[in-house]
Amino acid sequence: MKNVIQLLDVNKVYKTGNNEWVALRDVNLNVEDGEFIALVGPSGSGKTTLLNIIGLMDSPTRGHVVLEDKDVTYLGEKEKSELRNKYIGYVFQSYNLISFLTVYQNVELPLVIAGVPEKERQKMVEEVLQTIPGIYELRNKRPTQLSGGQQQRVAIARALVNRPKVILADEPTANLDINTGKAVVDLFKKIKDELGITIVMATHDLEMLKNCDRIVYIRDGMVERIEKNS
């Protein structure tokens, strides 16, 4: 199967004054098209840094990032922004919904930013609201009126609305109880199976791994091992 993401000898070093902190060390990773991968490790292991580099929010100090067979490591910010809008959806631990917008408006926002015409936006938002179970009837509510699980489903709908190639999820179940968290991961599995979208999820919760195709264990900024899920 074709690789949608390749990381080649990726290193990331942060500098503060005379101090250096090595966040990633010689990371090599291939993610196949339509695969569901979990990045697993304790806090501070490098999971979020790795997601940010995959998602073109940060650049490696050394090494290469390849997206859809294109080396994107040293692109300018404008080109990276265009690629993010086209290929990548994000789901965050804290949902990152805008409190004064309705569910519909939160989901629509990436399309507004991308300049999609209103009629086309309406069609795309309606479609994704009906794809994610349990949120269509909430479309006129605001985030403060929703449970944590409902807010995360809205965040997933927002990540899906521009029909990305890849969804990156950073600790998406960390603020949820175990049953709601499992329901969110089940939803990712459905999205992967039915829509063919590649999903890379960072988590420290081993309860959330049953639906993943492969598990990448990260410690001290290095890939410790990679396991295929049985």
Automatic annotation (TrEMBL):
Gene3D superfamilies: P-loop containing nucleotide triphosphate hydrolases. GO terms for molecular function: ATP binding; ATP hydrolysis activity; transmembrane transporter activity. Coiled coil: none annotated. GO terms for cellular component: membrane protein complex; plasma membrane. InterPro entries: AAA+_ATPase (IPR003593), ABC_transporter-like_ATP-bd (IPR003439), ABC_transporter-like_CS (IPR017871), ABC_transpr_LolD-like (IPR015854), MacB-like_ATP-bd (IPR017911), P-loop_NTPase (IPR027417). Pfam families: ABC_tran (PF00005). The keyword Nucleotide-binding applies. Residues 5-230 form the ABC transporter domain. It comes from the Archaea. Keywords: ATP-binding, Nucleotide-binding, Transport. This is Peptide ABC transporter ATP-binding protein. It comes from Stygiolobus caldivivus.
